């Protein structure tokens, strides 16, 4: 017989009872009887309460929870608790994801609202500078009509810019507003690729990194990485801010482009219109820093193999009257260039002629300047230059073959 744990049962108002243990195949049974009669039970774990009356004997059977059943109940309870805990975790995780998505949406909406406010505020500020002049209004309307005619081409370039997997947009290179750049990557990235850092134009007012998307597409199809550098425009910043932003963008390309498959030993700098002026100023400023007592910055002019300037203005002092006649009034242009002193300080043609910068000029990379004879935005000098498709061809030849044929007689 298996050992049993019997609990004493007593009732002071009843006669002595007998506790009779029994055993079965399934579980133990305890018989409680007021008289010494034995009742056998083959059912599972029951208590048989037998009481004698004068007329008849009544038998009441009640279930007894066995140890096995209690264990099963405990296991079921534990499993239920575990399921409930897992359900709570899932609900908490879902709530956390939902709250994170809502918070991210709020941040994006807040950023969009902030950017809209900044653009609106700067637009009104620019209008205050411009005043109500018929020249810039006429130029603006002409630009709008020109843009309408180019909408089919804009759609194609815009689709490539926003949906192509080869375009990495909005890479941060600094902590100032608009310190962003776009990377155009070739399809074939089987080795380090040459890199062109491009500074777009825009009259120092409407420049934007997306303006270089066509050039980026053309060069990336020829296994060249293109980095279009954005910078603060006026009135968000003046010329010193623009040059500083361009310099930081160039520094990012020189030091980080290897992480994107670029060859740090084959980096070329290019600027167009106002971007050509800003990029040239950044090169000269960096060369002057390297020859001075200032600590060396995060990049060096020796890291730039060649500079390409397209339709740039390099003698700002001579262009003030021309810009004024075309609607970029003298007062606005002086504000962009930080006064009369800035006209000379940010004129690369005058800077390289200064005897104090002789050592700095010797550090500059080879420079190839292009300018079209039919360019009325910034008039060319006595030297003529090829159009954009010739610039692209020359760039490819120089990068791939380390040489460029002369386009001038």
Can you put this structure into words, describing what you see?
This protein has 409 residues and is of the alpha/beta class. The protein folds into 2 domains: 117-163; 167-408, 3-Layer(aba) Sandwich (Rossmann fold), CATH 3.40.50. 45% of the residues lie in helices and 17% in strands. It contains 12 helices and 11 strands. It has helices at 67-130, 134-149, 151-163, 213-220, 239-256, 274-291, 316-325, 330-336, 340-345, 348-352, 358-361, 388-401; strands spanning 18-23, 28-33, 46-52, 57-63, 167-172, 180-184, 193-199, 225-229, 262-272, 304-310, 367-370. It has a 7-stranded mixed β-sheet, sandwiched between helices. The protein has a 4-stranded mixed β-sheet with strand order 1-2-3-4, with no helix packed on it. α5 (239-256) packs across α6. It is globular and about 90 Å long. It starts with 17 loop residues before the first strand and ends in an 8-residue tail after the last helix. Residues 4-12, 16-62, 64-71, 382-391 and 402-409 have low confidence and may be disordered. It catalyses: [protein]-C-terminal S-[(2E,6E)-farnesyl]-L-cysteine methyl ester + H2O = [protein]-C-terminal S-[(2E,6E)-farnesyl]-L-cysteine + methanol + H(+). GO terms for molecular function: hydrolase activity. It is found in: Endoplasmic reticulum membrane; Golgi apparatus membrane. The chain crosses the membrane at residues 136-162. Keywords: Endoplasmic reticulum, Golgi apparatus, Hydrolase, Membrane, Transmembrane, Transmembrane helix.
């Amino acid at each position: 017989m298996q050992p049993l744990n019997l609990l004493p049962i007593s009732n002071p108002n009843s006669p002595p009872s007998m506790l009779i243990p029994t055993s079965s195949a399934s579980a133990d049974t305890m018989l409680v009887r007021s008289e010494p009669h034995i009742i056998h039970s083959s059912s599972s774990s029951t208590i048989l309460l037998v009481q004698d009356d004068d007329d008849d004997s009544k038998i009441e059977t009640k279930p007894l929870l066995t140890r096995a059943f209690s264990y099963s109940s405990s296991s079921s309870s534990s499993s239920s608790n575990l399921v409930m805990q897992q359900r709570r975790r899932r609900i908490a995780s879902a709530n956390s994801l939902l709250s994170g998505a809502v918070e991210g949406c709020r941040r994006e909406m807040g950023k969009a609202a902030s950017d809209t406010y900044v653009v609106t505020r700067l637009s009104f500020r620019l209008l205050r500078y411009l005043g109500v002049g018929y020249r810039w209004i006429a130029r603006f309307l002409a630009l709008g009509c020109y843009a309408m005619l180019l909408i089919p081409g804009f759609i194609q370039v815009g689709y490539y810019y926003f949906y192509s997997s080869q375009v990495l947009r909005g890479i941060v290179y600094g902590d100032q507003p608009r310190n962003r750049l776009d990377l155009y990557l070739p399809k074939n990235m089987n080795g380090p690729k040459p890199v062109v850092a491009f500074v777009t134009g825009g009259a120092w007012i409407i420049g934007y990194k997306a303006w270089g998307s066509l050039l980026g597409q053309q060069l990336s199809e020829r296994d060249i990485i293109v980095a279009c550098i954005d910078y603060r425009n006026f009135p968000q910043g003046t010329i010193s801010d623009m040059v500083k932003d361009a310099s930081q963008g160039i520094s990012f390309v020189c030091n980080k482009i290897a992480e994107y498959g670029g060859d740090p030993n084959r980096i070329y700098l290019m600027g167009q219109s106002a971007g050509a002026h800003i990029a040239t100023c950044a090169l000269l400023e960096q060369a002057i820093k390297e020859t001075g007592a200032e600590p060396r910055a995060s990049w060096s002019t020796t890291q730039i193999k060649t500079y390409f300037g397209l339709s740039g203005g390099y003698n700002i002092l001579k262009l003030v009257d021309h810009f004024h006649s075309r609607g970029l009034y003298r007062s606005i242009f002086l504000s962009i260039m930080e006064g009369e002193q800035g006209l000379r300080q940010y004129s690369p043609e005058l800077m390289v002629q200064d005897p104090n910068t002789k050592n700095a000029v010797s550090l500059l990379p080879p420079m190839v300047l292009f300018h079209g004879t039919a360019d009325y935005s910034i008039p060319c000098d006595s030297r003529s230059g090829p159009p954009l498709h010739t610039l692209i061809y020359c760039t490819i030849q120089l990068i791939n073959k380390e040489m460029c044929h002369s386009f001038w007689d």
